[in-house]
Here is the input.
Amino acid sequence: MSVEPSDFVRRLPIGERISLPEDGIPFWEVFPYEGDLRIRVLDEPVLPEPPRRGEDGDECPGCVDTEGPTLWSDAHWKVRGFVEPEGVPAQVMLLPHDHGDLADLAPERAAQLGGMLQRVERAVMSLGGIARVHINRWGDGGSHFHVWFVARPEGMMQLRGTCLPLWSDVLPKVPAEEWQETNRRIARALAAEGGTAHVV
Ligand SMILES: [Zn+2]
Here is the structure.
């Protein structure tokens, strides 16, 4: 872990006001906000970085399943849902049972990952009315490898691309009963190809 900022970080305009680029994302049709915006001033770097969740001997939320219902699992993988409805038609997360980040996956598990990404995408697409399932891995919060699947509703062209999570934040949330049924349908679709659905 670094304790000194890199050349890249040293070049950043930390503490200075940055002006909006004329063709920047805030001017794209997919950006959910409009009006007068300004860019947040960059803070000083924090080095070494603080531990992520599950990294410093604390209870790992990826291991203990306290952050959402496990919809489906098999011997090596699980798909987790979200308790609270979102502003997108569906959102789930794929995690290995074993604790570790992407680089820690055993070769056999890493080789399964492509097929698992396809399976979860298929399960979400089977809901109908979904144009695309965006797959994201960020990993800045929790250290237990987890992949996000975020469904974009078919026909909503403004919701395309990287701003979808921002739209999910501001759009009306899916009614709770419908959200639970969506989770059940995803679990059943996954179990149809093997493993066990835990919400039926
Ligand atoms: Zn873990």
Observations:
- The chain has a mean pLDDT of 95.
- The CA atoms of residues 16 and 47 lie 20 Å apart.
- The radius of gyration is 19 Å.
- The beta strands are 70-73, 77-80, 91-96, 130-136, 147-153, 196-197.
